[in-house]
Amino acid sequence: MLEDNSFSARFFPALLSVLRIITALLFMQHGLQKLFGIPAPPPGGMPPVLSLFGIAGMLEVFGGGLMLVGLFTRPVAFILSGEMAVAYFMAHAPQGFWPVLNKGELAVLYCFVFLFFWAAGGGQWSLDHPWQRNNGSSRSMTSA
After folding, report:
1. Is 5 within 8 Å of 144 (Cβ atoms)?
2. Between 73-87 and 105-120, two packed helices, what is the crossing angle to 10 degrees?
3. What CA–CA distance (Å, rounded) separates 121 from 141?
4. Is the sign of the CA dihedral 101, 102, 106, 112 positive or negative?
5. Of 50, 58, 59, 54, nearest in space to 79 by CA
């Protein structure tokens, strides 16, 4: 719980939005690489769109775009968190236990950051924010 007059309480809503925007921009790069070869083709070449890798790319581009603008933040974050958990256990965990050795630390980090957004929402600079305020369903990290 954050105190109402603390530095953290004043800046948390804005910083939550900044974290969401930066995370979304970085996440979308993975999907753009898989689907369009931008900024460079993925190792192993372009995947078929209807493959597991191609579907992951679609989730990353379109889900990342929704996260970028903060629309349907909580359900999209939940889906993307699950995608990253699946990616870790399918692609990285079989290569060994330690994420730093199996190159899965980014998947783990995205998984838990998206899980955080599922719980916290998109912040004050999201398209969800005005709707949540009008419906009285906004959860505040400063209240108990």
Report:
1. no
2. 160
3. 10
4. negative
5. 59
Q: Is the pTM of this model over 0.85?
A: yes
Q: Is 91 exposed, middle or buried (0-12, 13-18, 19+ CB in 10 A)?
A: middle
Asked if the model's pLDDT at residue 131 lies above 90, the reply is no
In a domain, 92, yes or no: yes
Chain Cα centroid distance, residue 119 = 12
Total tally of structural domains belonging to the chain: 1
Span between the terminal Cα atoms of the chain, in Å: 6
Instruction: Enter the tokens of residue 74.
Output: 């909580």
Whether residue 144 is contained in a domain is answered as: no
Which domain range does residue 127 map to?
Answer: 7-135
Q: Is residue 69 part of a domain?
A: yes
